[in-house]
Amino acid sequence: MITIKHLSKSYIDPDGSVFTVLKDVNCEINPGEVISIIGPSGTGKSTFLRAINLLDPPTGGEIIVDGENILAKGYPLNKLRQKMGMVFQSFNLFEHMSILDNVTFAPMKLRHLTRQQAEEEAMAMLRKVGMAEKANVMPSDLSGGQKQRVAIARCLAMHPEVILFDEPTSALDPTMVGEVLSVLRQLASEGMTMLIVTHEMKFAHDVSTRIFFMNEGIIYEDGTPEQIFDHPVHSATKAFVQRIHKLVFEVDGPDYDILDVHSQMGGFCNKYNIAAKRDAADRITDLMIQSVMSTRYPFTLRLTYSEQYDTTALDFMKEGTDQSPLQQPGCDPQTLDTLRSLCKEIIEEPTKRGFRVKFIL
Amino acid sequence: MLMKRTKRILFLACTALLFLLPGCGKESQQGFDLQKESDIIGHKVAYNAGSVYEIMMSPRTDITKLCFNTQTDCIEAVIGGQADVMVNDDCIIPPDEQRRLGVRLALRGEKNFPCGLVFRKGPNELREKLSKFIDSLIATGEMQAIYDRWFLCDTPSSVQLPDMGPEPSGEPIKIGEAINLPPVAFPVEQEWRGLEPELLQRFARYVGRPVEFQFYPTSSAVPALQAGNIDILGGAIFITEERQATMDFATSHFSAHPGYYVKDETIKERLGFWGGIKQAFHNNLIVENRWRYITGGLWETVKIAVLSILLGSLFGAGICWMRMSRRKWLKQTAKIYIDVMRGIPMLVFLMIMFYVVLAGTGMGATAVAVVAFALNFAAYVSEMFRTAIQSVSHGQTEAGLAIGFTRWQTFRYIVFPQALKSVMPVYKGEAISLVKNTSIVGYIAIQDLTRASDMIRNRTFDAFFPLLIVTIIYFILAWLLGKALDLCVKKKG
Q: B25 in the Ramachandran plot: left (φ > 0), alpha (ψ -120 to 50) or beta?
């Protein structure tokens, strides 16, 4: 249906420097697919979506829709856009028209329906999104969630083959996100082809048939929700989907400021609401530094928290060795018992460059 | 509701006050006794700016000088008591008008000011013919007969032109009259009467060409003569050395003397408040069908205003488009245009357009005024349009494009209606201010509403009544225009 090859987009800043948002995006979108586009901020998700219907024309590559390159000169863009709906983060209802007129206007002008036909259809669409009783109200009288539902109805009234959703819930109060997502769910279940840029991970996981994880201007990972969320291949994907937060210290010698380490770990735990783990983290850190790690400078100390799984881990990593420090002489059984008692689990594993001891707190 | 009522009461109070004001001067039955010219020493003397009397009076230190812009203001000063005596031509207030106003010609001065008809500087066949013609009239005594007919009568405004036979046909000689004043020259409906029109009508038959009269206010008469809009300029213009340096005069056709006018209540008919209003109404509107000045002027004003607004809005839209264009040279051109137009005073621009830029094109004065006002209006409204369009959020454009409208459709259906709504209040203000600004077109000899009131004022010496009438008409005009624009928007919305 839509094939995208080597799509790129860069801006030239006023000072002459080139700023690349999309590097090289390749993908194929088939009818009936519900694709969620996720990824950290500033990685080109919205730009990618807006490049597909040429609201932000790309600077390179090809977009092939039904066998035709829409970037070719003279391609009837307005005809394309009639088949390719778009829902915006900021709703963009036509402020000077009533809700009903918002939905009937484009079908009357572009699909040449009579007013009666258009209104019948519009009322059906409004009923579908639960906004029929507001048909004669002006947009300024609606809440954000209601506006977004009308915007979806307006889009549907053009009978699009695919709808692009550009962060449809990002401008909404948390209480209104649900009503919009349930409309999206319903559309997905009816087989509408949809591309959704979203930060709603649970929604993306539950509703999508496919996920694009975008990072650094490319589609970093492309797969089913299970693949992306449960078995991500790339560490960046994993960090993102599990929403992993890290605190890292390179401890280079006995003079390292351990008090600062404690103070920063305290702040980290407070920030992510894991204050209960703080005591264990502090005691393990002290014990390790006093005993097993005291002869193994420099090493890396890392505290990580995964929001997705609500797990906290404290890692000690030493490069250039394949031996666990806990197995070496110098680690007496008493210390080991104490360490075990402070955490749920200790994982000792070799890494690419050395060895890691992971304490699951 | 309360606000509305308060406003109405205030408006009525102001109107009443305006009516009452002229009657408020200190009343002393008789003006002071003037026997000889030296009697004015120590008194307050009113005279006209730009006249020979200003030259005569301004060096004097033994009198209190009051210099006014028009003779109507001088007369008002004498009647109101601000001035003891007014000095102007002895023919400027005919006897019947003196009685109506309560002003008396107390003394004729010694001096003698020969008046002449004016031509562009340089050799001129027409001027030589006119001089020869006047010489012959003087020789036969006919000039004196003409003078006597108009000047030695009680009510020159009711004197008719004598039958001089049919007017010749051909290319007309264009005459500008700088005054509207019996007995020298004054229009009655379409016909100009008075000493100068009679003389020139006779001259027309002498040279075999028709004459065409038009009123030119003093300030624009000379430029009109230089630019070739008129061939001969009349209006009791004194022949002075200074003037002879820049223009040529035909042989003097009559002489004026200084006249000293004082207030004299004894000759004035007593009328009372309502009687006064009734008489003012009769004098200013009914006599000689003077209301036709008002209706004619109103038509000119409406014509210029409406056409300028339409043309200016279209042109303004074009400038706005250029200003918002991505092409740098278009943008820059529009910017410069806007800055220049906003920097030139409208009156100056109007005169430049009429006397310089469009002088040779043969365009009528009304057409020039429409073009000038439209160009000016465009500069202002283009910026209004631009800010209104920019105030519509970019999301609206994106939504329009994304749903499948073309760029033009998106502008036409989505952006324009919203911009229109936000531009309307300021646009309305600008349009109304244009209507009021058209009052300057008198400078290029268009008889608009303001000029109509001047014409009537010049004849009736009533400083106040014609102004009140046109004030009310302007007010109604502005109000109607505002309503009409509101209606347009409602229909669109």
A: beta
- How far is the CA of B256 from the CAs of A108, A123, B151, B252, in angstroms? 79, 88, 11, 11
Q: Of B111, B107, B151, B112, which Cα lies nearest the Cα of B260? A: B107
Q: What is the DSSP letter of A40?
A: S
Classify B327 as helix, strand or coil.
Answer: coil
The length of chain B is: 493
Report whether B323 contacts B386 (CB < 8 A). Answer: yes
The sign of the CA dihedral B454, B457, B459, B465 is positive
Q: Using an 8 Å Cβ cutoff, are A59 and A24 in contact?
A: no
Q: Annotate B178-187 with b (16+ C-beta within 10 A) or e (fewer).
A: bbbbbbbbbb
The answer, as to whether pTM is greater than 0.90, is: no
| Domains of chain B by start residue, with CATH | 113-259 (3.40.190.10), 291-492 (1.10.3720.10)
Cβ <8 Å between B493 and A96: yes
CA–centroid distance for B128 within its chain: 32
pLDDT in tens, A326-360: 886 667 888 888 888 999 999 988 888 888 999 99
d(CA B278, CA B411): 58
Closest Cβ–Cβ partner in B399, B404, B421 for A88: B399
Q: Mean pLDDT score of chain A, rounded to an integer? A: 91
* Contact call for A96 and B406, based on CB within 8 A: no
Residues 6 or more apart whose CB falls under 8 angstroms from that of A13 comprise A19
Residue contacts between A and B (CB atoms, under 8 Å): 58
* Beta pairing partners, B211: B173
- Rg over alpha carbons for chain B, rounded to the nearest Å, is 27
Cβ <8 Å between A158 and B396 = no
H/E stretch holding A147 reads helix A144-156
Under an 8 A CB cutoff, do A110 and B403 touch? yes
How many angstroms separate the CA atoms of B340 and B332, rounded? 12
> Which phi and psi angles does B369 have, rounded to 5°?
-60, -45
At B352 the pLDDT is 92
ipTM at complex level: 0.79
How many CB atoms within 10 Å of residue B278? Answer: 12
Question: Is A361:A280 a contact under the CB 8 Å cutoff?
Answer: yes
Q: Please name the amino acid found at residue A320.
A: G
The two tokens of residue B246 are: 């820049």
Q: Percentage helix, strand, coil, to 5, in chain B?
A: 65, 15, 25
Q: 3-state class of A68 per DSSP?
A: strand
Q: What residue of A is the nearest CA neighbor of B394? A: A92
Task: Provide the edge-to-edge strand list for the sheet that holds A60-65.
Answer: A18-29, A2-12, A60-65, A68-69
